[in-house]
Amino acid sequence: MAEEKNSRRLEGKVAIVTGGAYGIGKTFALRMAAEGAAVVIADIDAENSLKTVEELKVKGMKAIAVNTDVSVEKSTLAMSEKTAEIFGSIDILINNAAIFSKIKVSTVPFSELDMADWDRMMAVNLKGTFLCSRAVFPYMKERNRGKIINMASATFFEGTPVMPHYVASKAGIIGLTRSLASAMAEYNINVNCIAPGRTLSEDTSDEAAVKSNEVRAKTRQLKRIEYPEDLAGTAVFLASADSDFITGQTIVVDGGTIFH
Q: Residue 87 contacts by C-beta under 8 Å, 6 or more apart in sequence?
C-alpha cells in the first residue's frame, strides 16, 4: 500500500477545480484526488458541489466545497483565502468553470446575439479565468511554484459559425494563458491550456447530445466519442512535476480532429 500511495503524482498537493461540481470539472476533481491531491470544489452550484465532496470523502479523499462565482472578484478572493485557511497552500488551479452546457450557451446567429449573452459569456469564461488566476497568484508566488491549467476549446481552431461569443471567450483564454505564463514564469508558476474537442459528459448526455457526438466522432482520426476521462490524464500531467518545463502551451485533446 505504501508503494501505491507514493506513486500518486499529486501526493500532498492542493488543487482548486472551478466548475468542479459536475461534468468535466467533476472528473478533474475525482482524478486529482485519486492522484493524492486535496481538492477544492469551487462552483456556483452549492448543492452539487457538496454531493461531489461527499463522493470524494466516502473514498477517503480530502475535499471541501467553496461556493464561488468566478465572475466576481470578491468571490474568487474568498475562494483562495478559504483554500489556504483549510489546507495551508494552493498548488494547482484548474480554470474549468464556463458557460456552455449546464448553463446553456446561446446558439443563435451572430447577427441576432443578445449583448447580455455576450457580456455574461466573457464575464464567466474569460474574466473568470483571469480573476481566479490572479486570486491564487499570491499563494503560489509565496511558495515559488504552482500550476495553472486553463480550459479553452478546439472550436477556437475551427471558427464555428455559431456561438461567436463562446469561441471568442475561448480564444481569449489561449491568449491569456500565454500572457500569464510570461508574467508568472519568474516565480516557477506554469500556466498551460487544454483545448478539448466536443465532449460528452454527465450534463450533456441526452439523446440529442449523444447523436451529435456520434456524428462528431466520425470526423476524428480516433473515431469514437470523447469523454471527460479522456481529458483527465492531460490535466494530471500539467498539474504534476512532469510538466515543470512546459508553460504557455495549448494542448488539443480532440482525438485528432484539429491538426495545427
A: 14, 38, 40, 62, 64
SS3 for 30-52 is HHHHHCCCEEEEEECCHHHHHHH
Name 153's Cβ contacts closer than 8 Å, sequence gap at least 6.
166, 167, 170, 195, 196
pLDDT at 202: 62
Residue 259 host element (H or E): none
pLDDT per position as a tens digit, 165-178: 999 999 999 999 99
2 burial (CB, 10 Å; 0-12 / 13-18 / 19+) is exposed
Residues annotated as part of the active site: 166
Distance CA 49, CA 67 (A): 8
Fold of 2-253: Rossmann fold (3.40.50)
Side-chain half-sphere exposure of 119, counting CA atoms within 13 A: 3
Q: Which residues contact 173 (CB under 8 A, 6 or more apart)?
A: 95, 125, 126, 129, 150, 151, 152, 193
Q: How confident is the model at residue 2 (pLDDT cuts 50, 70, 90)?
A: very low
pLDDT at residue 197, as a whole number: 86
**Maximum distance among all Cα pairs of the chain, rounded to whole angstroms:** 60
Single-letter amino acid code for the residue at 138: P
